[in-house]
Amino acid sequence: MSYNQRETPILAELCTFLVEDVYGELAARVYSVLARHGRQTLAAVAKASYLNSRQIKYGLVILLQQHLVFHSGNDSQPTYYEIDWQNSYALVRLGKVTKLVEDRFGRKAANVMTNLLRLGHTRIADLKEAYFPSETESDDDSDEDIKNGIGKKRKRGNGDTNQTAMTNGVTNGGDVKPVVNGDHAHTNGGPVGEPTQDDAEDDDGEIGSVEELYEVIERLIQKGWVRTMTESQYLSPGDMHDILQQETIDQDLGGQQPTGIKDKAICHRNTLERKRNMRDKWLEVPRFSRKRPADQDYSNPTKRMKVNGANGWSSTGGAAPEDKLVIRVNPEKIAVAMRTEQLVSLVEQRLGHVTAYIYRTMLQELEANTPRCYEEYPEPPTAGDEGGDNQIDPKNLVTARDVAKKINKNFDICEGLDPNAIVSITRKGHVRSSNVLSQPIDPSSLNTDEKTRIIDKHIQLLSEDPTHFVTWHSRAGYSQWHIEFPEIAKQLIQTEIENTVSARKGTLGVKLIRALRKKGKLDERATCNAMMMSAGDIRGIVNDLTVQGIVQTQEIPKVERREAKHSLHLIWYDRQRAREKLLHDTYKGMVRILQRIQFEREKVQPLLSKAERSDVVGNEEKWLSKGELDALRKWKEVQEKLSLQLFREDDLVATLRDFHGPLVSV
Amino acid sequence: MAAPMAPSMVPKEEEPPAVDLANNEAASPADALYDKCAQRSQGTVFFQRDLSNMQVAETMAELTMLLQELCDRHLMKLMTFEGEPCWKLRSRAEADKLRRLTPDERLLYHHIDQVQAEGIWSKALRARTNVTQQVLTKCLKSLESKDLVQSVMSVKFPNRKMYLLKHLRPSEDIAGGPWQSEGDFDTALIETISQIVAQHIENETCIKVPGNWNDYERPDRTAEIAHKKAQVQGIRDIEDAPAVKPYQPPRDPNATKIVHRTSPQYPTSASVAEWLNSKEVLRGKTVREDDMEQLLEMMVLDGRLEKISGTNYRTVLTAVDTKVYNGFVDAPCGNCPVFDLCGDEGEISARTCVYFGQWLETTSEEV
Q1: Which residues in chain A touch residue B209, judged by CB atoms under 8 angstroms apart?
Q2: Quick one: A99 and A214 in the same domain?
Q3: Which helix (H) or strand (E) holds A629?
């Protein structure tokens, strides 16, 4: 986290904007104090702001509920508050998460997810209450929830969720992308990866019964999209490190501060292991009382009825043991899903939509077993231990046959391949000289084996691509593949940097970047040789890219007096630096977009307040003039355009920041 | 190791006239020795052993004398090979020219001769010979006019004039490969050749597939079901509207698509060089494997080719025609010339931004 946690003023500004947009002014005021001053106690926040302590507490409760700030635990010392930049930034993704969940698990799950996002962490009982309000306020029992203001939260929760549940997942904030999709993924070849039974039966996303709600929640937990909430998740990375290191010292080193190199290494290694263990514990799937493994379900069909009866799980609100569980959205999983989307769109650009569809199927197959994009606390390498852990977890492998089984029957998998390959598989007819099949092949008539082999051809295309989207592993299931995410993530970062350069400076700039990346540090003549161009043509580009911070320069004096004439002038390209620069610029771009939205809104504010009047809503045609209607439409267009761009910039941020840890040197 | 004067294997311009052999036989023992040597193949290096075996000189002393005489007449050139003295012939015409040189010129010639195809920079020449600048310029001019040396612009150091013997071809180091002319990259040539090469590699690794290559009947069941339902029920339920069909590419036979071949012979720099040389596109020049590798690597940087495994290349294909950049550069900020000056408030800000104004077709605040 330490890397992501690095704070920049521009990120602070962006996050404050987002908090203000979503949670209002009070929360944003408190937030901005923390953003400007860093880690603070309550008293210090009060000192730095003009708010009284009651207001600050209210603000903090909202922030804590949404996991926008960490706090340092409940020990006797004063509690410190610190911003969770990662989660704060994630506010911009609210709409996207809904869409991702919907594509994978159907609208019901998306509905639950939206509510979880709006509520922050929530007890399952409260969520149930929100969907199916009980007549009596009976739920006073357990207040072992995380300490902050549960009463308030419940009130807020009830109000909010009821509203959202009624409106069926149509998000009501003007700044969140409306959920107008759902058909999109299905039409483009049918549901992928998780062909949910929900998809078939529900299109409205309405949760019909408590049963269903529990089922959806459990499924989301099992797939790792939702995790149980523990107090340790509130610890900031620094606090967590201190606690776990102390624990390591106490337990593994007998309470002695490590002094020697060896002891320090042990301490470091074991602390990292503790961090990993703690984090993995968050993802453990709790036992759901109602649910049994599927086979039991069939063998003992009466059990469900019994449990049901005993607990009285109708909407009247009996308490199941898991009701006390507190759950929240798992932000790491969101990044995994976003990575899938971006890889698929990249493949679509390179190899066409059919291959991209097959790649999507493969990626989603692996998604359930991929809790995060990269290991944040990697085991430090030990000397002489190279290549020891080359073993790949079989869960991270996917075979061509798996894909063939998953794939929609009507999908034309023959498209995008060499006709000769198709003929060699189907052994029907031949390829005419014009590359037309003499006997056309209906893809839906292929048998599984032929399908598998055709899909294997697509997968081979993926593996041959210089990005190496997949890597061959074994011959199980016709052909078995794994995906080397770290390498691909680096490639994605590189692609985005190249895209940026290409938009600014055209192909010449990209050529320069690639040449420098391949050859390392170059002087002018070597650059010319690599690019096969004359120096005059290159100089301008080198200058511009240097000014933009993408190309670095270095001057090495050859003689004692550092004369420019007698120095080597080298240029080089550092991916990590370019990445950070671009990330920073993108944050800034997002801030500008938010500011522009604000500005555009100010311009039409009188009109908006008129349009929002209760007598006007629904009767716009009647009460608003034509000019006003046009202005309103224009505002909506502008807002949509800006928001869309904001989400696309967020995609870029995900690529640059979330898919790979810091890159060490070139 | 090679001595200061490495034997040159470069063919001489012309052979000494063999016709004179009979006439000159009796002329002098030195000439006799010369003629005997001239009978050997061109560029041969003679060691003392070889020369005494020719049985022109009776004794070692006489042989030494004869060789001294030939060297004085510039018909032979003294060299050393691994510490052993050896000699090489010069043609009579060349020797003639050399005889007419002034001592300064000869000195310079000698130094220029030493560096062979690598060439020598005029300043370095001056440093080695210790002559004045005026003498140097004068002598070099006269040497050039006598067709003994040539000057070439260096590729490495564009402002240096390199001198080397007239009959030698300048080495790659100073003249560059086939892609360079007069010390600079020949952009037009490179462009043309890389287009030809790109086309060749595309033919090798890709295949053009017409839109109608797999012309099977496409049943449209969902639409039929919805249609039938509508007929039976009289009205069409909004829920039953035919689902949007999976995207199907058009089947226009003219709309060809290029896809990768299944298992092609991926070209390497060697195979492309061979192909290009066999086509004789570059008149009078052959492309070596190294040159071709340089070109292909450059095309990889250009994004026209991509490297598959160590040495194989193939064409880069993109499935979509429109170039998508990313969210940042598609917004005005990504390309903004004053991005770094833009602040939260002030003259340049999101509120006053003209670029946002153009992009959104709205008005910005006047400053």
Answers
A1: 418-419, 435
A2: yes
A3: helix A626-653
Q: What mean pLDDT comes out for the span A372-382?
A: 80
Closest CA to A80 of A72, A91, A69, A88: A72
For chain A, say whether B127 makes contact (Cβ under 8 Å).
Answer: no
Claim to verify: residue A103 and residue A145 sit in the same structural domain: yes
Structure tokens at A194: 């998780």
Q: What's the rounded mean pLDDT across residues A438-452?
A: 81
Helix residue ranges per DSSP H, A520-625: 524-531, 535-547, 575-603, 605-611, 620-623
Whether residue A649 is found in the same domain as residue A601 = yes
Residues in B touching A528 (Cβ below 8 Å):
185
- The answer to whether residue A248 is domain-embedded is no
A607 with A641, same domain? yes
Region of residue A24 (phi > 0: left; psi between -120 and 50: alpha; otherwise: beta): left
What one-letter code names the amino acid at A416? G
Whether residues A404 and A525 fall in one domain: no
- Of A517, A544, A573, the position where a domain reaches its end is A573
Beta bridge partner(s), residue B77: B88
pLDDT-based confidence at A302, cuts 50/70/90? very low
Spatial CB neighbours of B312, under 8 Å, sequence gap ≥ 6: B266, B267, B268
Q: Is B191 on the interface with A (CB under 8 A)?
A: no
CATH code (residue A550): 1.10.10.10
Which of these ranges, A136-150, A340-354, B273-287, has the smallest mean pLDDT? Answer: A136-150
Give how far A460 is from chain B: nearest CA, Å. 9
ipTM: 0.76
What's the token pair of residue B167?
A: 């009959």
- Shared domain for A367 and A429, answered yes or no, is yes
Q: Is residue A463 part of a domain?
A: yes
B351-361, pLDDT tens digit by residue? Answer: 899 999 999 88
**Is there a single domain that holds both residue A313 and residue A300?**
yes
- Residue-number span of the structural domain to which A352 is assigned: 334-378+394-483
Q: Are residues A557 and A641 in the same domain?
A: no
Of A451, A483, A515, which marks where a domain is finished? A483
Instruction: Count structural domains, chain A.
Output: 4
Which carries the bigger pLDDT value, residue B230 or residue A284? A284
In chain B, positions 197-256, which contact chain A (CB-CB < 8 Å)? 207-210, 212-218, 239, 243-249, 253
Chain B hits for A582, CB-CB cut-off 8 Å, are 328
DSSP A656: I
Question: And the tokens for B360?
Answer: 């959104």
Cα–Cα–Cα angle for A488, A105, A281, rounded to 5 degrees: 70
Contact B294 A410 (CB under 8 A): no
Question: Is any Cβ of chain B less than 8 angstroms from the Cβ of A640?
Answer: no
